[in-house]
Amino acid sequence: MFIFNSSIGKKFIQSITGAFLVIFLLLHGTINFFSVIDSFTGKYGAAMADEKLFSAGDGLFKLGCDFMSTGFISIMVPILALGFLIHILYGCWLSWKNLKARGGWKRYEVASKATSDSWSSKNMLILGIIIIGFICFHLTHFWAKMQLPEMFGIGNFENNPYLLLNVTFGKWWVLVLYIIWFVAVGLHLTHGFWSMFQTVGWSGQTWFKRLKVIGVIVACIICFLFIATAVNAFIQANFVA
């Protein structure tokens, strides 16, 4: 098929699945950041202490998790997550094929573009490998303890996401690994965001410059949302009674 065999078609697949990635991360990051707001309003600790569906806490993060469990969102999130996964896997595969076709890593570097391309644009394969590796690590902490038991009855269901945040990010080395992952995602997005729009035709000089700036802003916002959530959970687990 044309969409799988042509370079334009391959880039189009990456653009569409990349849009899924951005939407998924913004939604996921925003809801996670609600836990940071809850820590300032006192709802974080109250929700942690409540054993009956933590209703006494009734924090924004809890409400966000309830929202994610609604019918429409329960359907949309797996679709967005699947697009996210396809984007990473397909991108790694394309990068590997391009690398082999050019005769190796050194020959992949083009001198005329080296000064104009960003580090992230020249290392999307490395970033993709780091990201997908940490996705597996991440799934063992949250998805395997909430969605997997709820959907398939596998494992022990943990209903309190505040507790999972503390248990996961309470260890300093886990926090460091996650921050590395979040930064890798951010670097990936700084190139991927504007490249996504360029592929679908927004390649004019004026909008190209604007999209690069917007891409950096979006990447920074997403990084901030996730890093702030992780650091706050570490503080809550180790320094807040």
Give a verbal description of the structure:
The protein has 241 residues and is mainly α. The chain has one domain (8-239): 3 helical TM bundles of succinate and fumarate reductases. It is 80% helix and 0% strand. The radius of gyration is 20 Å and the shape is elongated. Residues 107-116 have low confidence and may be disordered.
Write the layout of secondary structure elements.
Elements: H1 2-5, H2 7-41, H3 43-49, H4 60-68, H5 71-101, H6 105-108, H7 111-114, H8 119-122, H9 124-141, H10 147-152, H11 161-169, H12 172-199, H13 205-239
Helix pairs in contact: 2-4, 2-5, 2-12, 2-13, 5-9, 9-12, 11-13, 12-13
Q: In brief, what are we looking at here?
A:
It is built from 13 helices and no strands.
**pLDDT < 50 runs, ≥5 residues:** 107-116
Radius of gyration computed on alpha carbons = 20 Å
The total count of helices amounts to 13
CATH class categorisation: Mainly Alpha
Taking the sheet with the most strands, its summary is: none
- Count the domains: 1
CATH architecture: Up-down Bundle
Mean pLDDT rating: 76
**Helix/strand order, N-terminal first:** HHHHHHHHHHHHH
**What's the helical proportion of residues?**
over 70%
